Amino acid sequence: MTIADSGCLMENGGSCLPCTPDEEKKIVKDLMDEAELDLKEGNFYYIVSTRWFARWERYVGLSSDDHLVDTQSSDSQDLAAVPTSIPDRPGPIDNFDIVENGNNGEGDDLELARTLLEGRDYVLVPQKVWEKLFQWYKGGPALPRKMISQGVFNKKQFSVEVYPLRLKLIDSRDDTEFTIRLSRKASLHELYERVCTLRGTEREKAILWDYFNKHKQLRLVDSNRTLEESNLQMDQEILLELQVHESYPSQFGKDSTGNELALVALEPSRTSTSIAGGPTLSNGHSTCSLNLRPGSVLNSGVTDTDDGFGASSGVRRVERGGLAGLQNMGNTCFMNSALQCLVHTPPLVEYFLQDYSDEINTENPLGMHGELALAFGELLRKLWSSGRTTIAPRAFKGKLALFAPQFSGYNQHDSQELLAFLLDGLHEDLNRVKQKPYIEMKDWCGRPDKEVADECWRNHKARNDSIIVDVCQGQYKSTLVCPVCSKISITFDPFMYLSLPLPSTVTRSMTVTVFYGDGSGLPMPYTVSVLKNGHCRDLTQALSTACCLRSDENLLLAEVYDHRIYRLFENPYESLTSIKDEEYIVAYRLSQKETGKRKLEIVHQEKSTPDFLKGSGWKDFGAPLLAQLEDDSPSAADIELAASRLLSRLKRTSSSNVVHSDKENGFLSEVNGEPSNSCNGRFESMDQLMDNIESEPEDTSSQALSFHLLLTDDRYSSRKPIFKDSVIKSGANRIKVFLDWTEREHKLYDSSYIKDLPMVYHKTGFSAKKTRQEAVSLFSCLEAFLTEEPLGPDDMWYCPGCKEHRQATKKLDLWTLPEILVFHLKRFSYSRYLKNKLDTFVDFPIHNLDLSKFVKQKDGRSYVYELYAISNHYGGLGGGHYTAFAKLIDDNRWYNFDDSRVSPVNEADIKTSAAYVLFYRRVEPERKVGLGETSQGHTGS
Fold it and tell me: Residue 60 in contact with residue 25, Cβ under 8 Å?
């Protein structure tokens, strides 16, 4: 498609419109489709703030169902429900809300904030799309990123490297530090070139060390080996040393503590026995014992020297195993939580501390050639042999990134999704079946359930036989019924965990600051309780009661972002799930009589150091004020009068009895602060308010207003003075002005009332309170999981009777349960453009979880379980934190594993609303269990 050249520039720096919104949409869609057909390594994509991109999508007429790029921005939700006014053209591209060092950096110095999520905070657009958007809108800054290829075998996939590897180079000559950014797919040769260019050193004399945790781990040899393969992590140090003589200098043979370093190959030769049969020492030799147990004599620096965090060299007696922490290597708390739960699973501990080399399946095309099982087993051995030494699981993370690229990089991920991958991956790597036979499944045909279930399990075991199947897999019965012909289909399928739904009819506390649109009262935050899945109407009703809203008033909800009104919630049926906990929501009390009138938004500014990127020398602060205007074309006096009203209650008490006026122009400048007769401290009526405002003198010759008010445009990009004889004409429904707070205003008014708005929900630290009033039991979650329900419209069943896809009803039943039973509490709900978390407190038994009544197969086995591990998630989406509780069975004590920190925890404190994945172990009849708890899970008092 040929596009007209856009050479002219508008006053705001953007180019003049080259085409209509529909044409822009078509051009971008065509370029998106073209890029999708040409995916290859090295392609450039650009990061664009979701806030800006959502505005552009609205401008070109995209609805919530046909986004060009998946987004979860609040702008992109419920667009169809918003009043059908024509959206304004977005201003210049603004990516500063996702850049960490904001306006202080430029070019390669710009850093993305570390907690960004694709779709929620940013979108990725192909290079040609960026070039078009920049041609039309200008702005920036440009944030280009390369596409890389990840994974191995049939698991290769393309992804954009949003966060390139950032390394801290330490020059040993003067201990100076430098930051180097390279793709993790870059080679060590490229790293040497970058370092030598940066430090002006000769390539032949440069020696680089992997300096993880400020200990020499391994010499980085100039080669084509990638940084990722070398296990280099985000923000870790590398050390530069210079070889001053041809012979290897003596100081290079010592680590940072002065201990001698053994010169070893980059890849010590390892057989499967040396890894699976016993922990490998740093010199590549294995211990003589193949049947290791906690408390064995081991070298603390097992296998990879990088895995010991602060470990001293030499052989020592290990204290108690299983109490080692895992170092966080950049948003890896999700991985650490999942791993601690698995490495404290008793049957897996027993299995991986023995010789399991004979069961490694290197031929399974569905597995990872045994490498994942070897890496996991090696890590488990280290955790159980290192006492309380913290382990940095770099080698394991490298294998994980290789075989599961979805978990690579440094973004936060889901611990349950990782657990599911690990259980499946370990099973395939340890599958005792080398050649899977083809088995044709038989139909149910009305046969007895036990016959069909046994047959399905035999068929499953013929193809899947591993330690994971032995201890982690159960079987459930699935019944489908056609709603048209009543055809019944029954299958028996294996499972490794049960994902339980949580009741959604729980409440949510929301804090909203209420402002008076007539200035007759001070701003006041109110915390109300509403249904999590409620609507804006529910929130306004709760606020109306809390703030004693009068019958002649309305509340208008708004989101404040960067001290400006970002969006108005004018649709009463907009879902409250679109409001995130970390957002700032305000409500304006406005008169019903003036509904539909033009509104005035006042944005506060104060003097600041001039910004060379944004100019002006003024910065926004506080929360904006909003008032209704009686006239659609207000005069300067109308604007000033409205500002006077809104600021009237902010007047400082020290000058409450003084009437201030500007003697130079005689214009209205201040409100008389006589005490109000109202018991609530607000004026009873606008007449009373006006009586307290000094009237404007009739004779004046000045053209300036007493307030420093400046008119701005819809994008807040201009500052135009307002003179007393001005008439404000604007096609927009909201007139926006800046109120400049000089030293005079700060002396007269107390700005603290408009500063420091509380967020919708704010809690300090990662704490999870036991909200008993919203508690549900684990049994009710399980019952909801087993309740008959219709399939979704996107999950239709092909009925063999009707020969059509039908929305059948589905009923699940538990047939048999495994020795290790894992419950996943579905706290996260996902739709295409929205994610939400439920903080519902689930009351789960610690001891004597009796599931006998839920199991259909009566085989005489025990179905009583006790808890031994929990994966916890604290906080909200994107910015949350994972930890784990795990019980040392032999010690009969619980511990809190928070990355590298390990501490005892009371059993009574492990039940929190942060519990995400629960791990239970079957209690055999002869095994003694804890007392004081009934089978229903309620603690005795």
Answer: yes
CA distance 69 to 56: 12
The Cα angle at residue 115 between residues 112 and 116, in degrees rounded to 5: 65
Residue 23: CB partners within 8 Å, gap ≥ 6? Answer: none
| Among the listed residues 907, 833, 918, 923, the one whose alpha carbon sits nearest the alpha carbon of residue 884 | 918
Reported as type and span, the H/E element at residue 44 is strand 44-49
Q: Are 515 and 523 in contact (CB under 8 A)?
A: yes
Both ends of the chain: CA-CA distance in Å?
76
CB 307 within 8 A of CB 279: no
Kindly provide the b/e burial profile for residues 718-748, where b requires at least 16 CB atoms within 10 angstroms of the residue's own CB. ebeebebebebeeeeeebbbbbebeeebeeb
Predicted pLDDT of residue 763: 54
Is 881 a residue of the active site?
Answer: yes
SS3 115: coil
Q: How far apart are CA 426 and CA 185, in angstroms?
A: 26
From CA 845, how far away is CA 855, in angstroms rounded?
A: 18
Q: What tokens does 77 get? A: 């939700």
Nearest C-alpha neighbor of 133 from the set 238, 229, 48? 48
Helix, strand, coil percent values for the chain (each to nearest 5): 25, 25, 50
Return the pLDDT at 926: 65
Neighbours of 586 (CB within 10 A): 22
**CA angle, 258 as apex, 256 and 262 as ends, to 5°?**
90
Out of 563, 604, 873, 881, the active site residue is: 881
Distance CA 626, CA 888 (A): 59
Q: For the packed helices 333-343 and 415-429, what is the interaxial angle rounded to 10 degrees? A: 50
CA separation (Å) from 934 to 38, 922, 926, 940?
61, 16, 18, 8
Alpha-carbon gap, residue 309 to 388, rounded angstroms = 10
Output the six-digit token pair for 393: 């699981």
Residue 817: which of 775, 795, 843, 849 has the closest Cα? 849
Domains and CATH numbers, the chain: 21-62+87-161 (3.30.2230.10), 165-242 (3.10.20.90), 332-430 (no CATH), 507-609+616-652+706-755 (3.10.20.90)
| Grouped pLDDT means (10 residues each) for the chain, 941 residues | 37 53 91 90 92 90 62 44 59 90 56 81 93 92 90 73 90 90 91 92 90 89 89 89 63 38 31 38 30 31 42 40 88 93 96 93 90 94 86 89 78 88 94 89 82 92 95 94 89 94 74 90 89 82 89 91 89 81 90 82 82 64 88 81 85 53 32 34 40 39 60 84 76 82 86 86 49 71 87 81 87 94 88 65 94 88 94 81 92 93 94 95 69 38 29
Tally of CB atoms within 10 A around 890: 11
Q: 232 and 392 in contact (C-beta within 8 Å)?
A: no
Distance CA 191, CA 178 (A): 13
Tokens for 586, please give them: 């305000």
Conformation bin of residue 235: beta by default, left when phi > 0, alpha when psi is -120 to 50:
left
Residue pointed to by tokens 């032999």: 890
864: β partners: 850
DSSP of 870-886, one letter per residue? EEEEESSTTT-EEEEEE
The single residue of 215, 333, 344, 547 carrying the catalytic annotation is 333
What number of other Cβ atoms are within 10 A of residue 759's Cβ? Answer: 14
pLDDT reported for residue 879: 65
Q: What are phi and psi of 570, to 5 degrees?
A: -90, -15
Nearest to 449 by CA among 477, 474, 411: 477
How many other C-beta atoms can be found within 10 angstroms of the C-beta atom of residue 269? 7
Active-site annotation holds for 333: yes
Give the other-Cβ count within 10 Å of 800's Cβ.
12
Strand (E) positions, 463-506?
474-481, 488-495, 498-501
Q: Is the peptide bond before 141 cis (omega within 30 degrees of 0)?
A: yes
